[in-house]
Write a sequence for this structure.
């Protein structure tokens, strides 16, 4: 591709689409490259309740993303479906090599996201957003007064489990070992919580149900014994949350950008260590990974890209 874009955005989740909307409104020539469908993690979320000003009750991830996509296109953002396999980031022109084409830009916004590590049980994919979740902040409200199970034993798993006790009537941590890996201070709080229970030396083997998650089979890691757990008859369903870590999609930039455990380091204005390269959304080092913070990151990154382009026009 011979065209030199003012900005190329890698990824079409909330951060990438917000960046596309803002860069388009800044009258920058903009290309959004996404290898799969728009939305990232939010595209598999049935309901959203915590995005400010959402237009309809019972907002779904796909419906919200569809409007974001339309907005970005309305303001002139072009689209390409491609998988980028190599990048050259140094210098005034950034080059991206895909399986279909080669792309050039003055600035690059990386919004490739971070995705939760799967629980690793049978039929897990069937119940994503239908009982299986990886975000307590996003989905806790949907499980009010229900039983909830949390897979994991580190700081995040235990902290999220304690957060879930504010909504669920009972929360059980499923851990493959016989002791938690979380910090002792976090463990002390957890063991004092009367709504928090523990299932040691256990992994989830298979999920059960038709349209929604209504049961599971767990396996004892020491004996191999399988046990079936069904939701209470009066509930018909329960929640299963996985907190065993995230995989940031940053492999493409290893050795080029400063990172922390795979997350790209930026300042408050989304600048990376390479001039003209920005990161936005879940891919960057940050405290909270939500739709609203991703969208804000994208808007800031686009503003900084416009400033960079303007300063380097001459």
């Amino acid at each position: 591709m011979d065209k030199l874009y003012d900005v190329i955005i890698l990824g079409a989740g909330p951060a990438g689409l917000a960046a596309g909307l803002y860069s388009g409104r800044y009258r920058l020539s903009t290309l959004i490259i996404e290898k799969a469908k728009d939305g990232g993690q939010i595209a598999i979320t049935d309901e959203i309740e915590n995005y400010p000003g959402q237009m309809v009750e019972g907002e779904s991830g796909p419906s919200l993303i569809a409007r974001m996509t339309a907005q970005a296109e309305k303001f002139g953002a072009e689209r390409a479906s491609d998988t980028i396999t190599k990048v050259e980031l140094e210098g005034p022109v950034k080059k991206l090599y895909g399986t279909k084409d080669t792309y050039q830009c003055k600035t690059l916004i990386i919004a490739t996201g971070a995705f939760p590590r799967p629980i690793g049980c049978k039929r897990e994919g069937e119940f994503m957003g239908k009982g299986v979740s990886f975000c307590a902040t996003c989905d806790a409200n949907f499980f009010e007064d229900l039983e909830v199970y949390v897979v994991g034993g580190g700081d995040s798993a235990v902290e999220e489990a304690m957060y879930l006790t504010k909504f669920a009537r009972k929360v059980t941590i499923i851990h493959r070992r016989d002791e938690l890996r979380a910090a002792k201070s976090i463990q002390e709080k957890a063991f004092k919580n009367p709504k928090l229970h523990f299932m040691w030396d256990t992994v989830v083997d298979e999920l059960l149900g038709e349209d929604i998650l209504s049961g599971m089979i767990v396996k004892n890691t020491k004996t191999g014994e399988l046990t079936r757990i069904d939701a209470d008859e009066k509930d018909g369903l329960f929640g299963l949350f996985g907190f065993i870590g995230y995989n940031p999609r940053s492999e493409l930039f290893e050795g080029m950008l400063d990172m922390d455990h795979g997350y790209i380091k930026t300042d408050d204005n989304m600048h990376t260590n390479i001039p003209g390269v920005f990161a936005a959304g879940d891919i960057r080092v940050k405290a909270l990974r939500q739709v609203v913070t991703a969208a804000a990151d994208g808007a800031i990154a686009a503003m900084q890209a416009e400033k960079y382009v303007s300063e380097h026009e001459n």
User: Anything to note?
Assistant: The chain has a mean pLDDT of 91. The two ends are 24 Å apart (CA to CA). The chain has two domains: 4-116+246-311, 124-242. Residues 291-311 form the longest helix (21 residues).
